[in-house]
Amino acid sequence: GTPPPPSEPPRRAAAAAAADPPGRSGPSAGVLAGGLVAVALVVLAVVLLNGGGGGDNGSQTAKKTATPAAKKETKKKTATPTATATKTATATPTATPTASATATPTQSSGNEPASNDPTQLQLQAYNLNQAGKSADALPVAQKAVRLGCKGSGPVSPCGYALFELAKAQRGTGDAKGAVKTLNERLKRYPDDQRAAVEAELDKAKADAGE
Questions:
Q1: How far apart are CA 161 and CA 122, in angstroms?
Q2: How many CB atoms lie within 10 A of CB 115?
Q3: How wide is the angle at C-alpha 120 spanned by C-alphas 118 and 121, nearest 5°?
Q4: Who's near 138: CB < 8 A, 6+ residues apart?
Q5: 124 and 140 Cβ atoms separated by less than 8 Å
Q6: pLDDT tens digit string along 118-144?
Q7: This prediction's pTM
Q8: Per-residue pLDDT tens over the stretch 168-186
Q9: Among 169, 176, 178, 168, which residue's Cα sits nearest to residue 209?
């Protein structure tokens, strides 16, 4: 027979009991402690990553994002003209139509008399021709013929007015007009004072070169 091993001293047994409490083995306690340490490291790493990323990277991102907006604002401000030139429409003066005098038929023999009585006008033309004022007698005789010889007017005043008109025409240099007027007088009133009318007609033809 081999003698039995010596028994452990009482002190060592008490120390081992104190270091390893009852109900928990040594290897499982070490695993738990290692797991806690690993979790703590992961949490610390996450905190550091979030804190560092939120500081530098976040600010960098903000800077990069803000820069284009700021540039756009700057471009907009630069592109906006400070003073816009406005074209003012100058009022074009419109031409005011000037009142033009209405053309009235001119009387070759001067102003027409105011009277509308053909007999009175014929007598006035006679007096003027007798006074040698053919230019003054002409418009008076013209109006007397126009008013007194409408249709088949009587010899007085139409025939007499035609005779005074012919004399005024010849006196103002219109001998051909006088010839025409005297022929009209003979045609209308062939039996009234024909000799006097033909004598005046001969003078008018001579002046006209006929």
A1: 5
A2: 14
A3: 60
A4: 108, 109, 110, 165, 168, 169, 171, 172
A5: yes
A6: 999 999 999 999 999 999 999 999 999
A7: 0.48
A8: 999 999 999 999 999 999 9
A9: 176
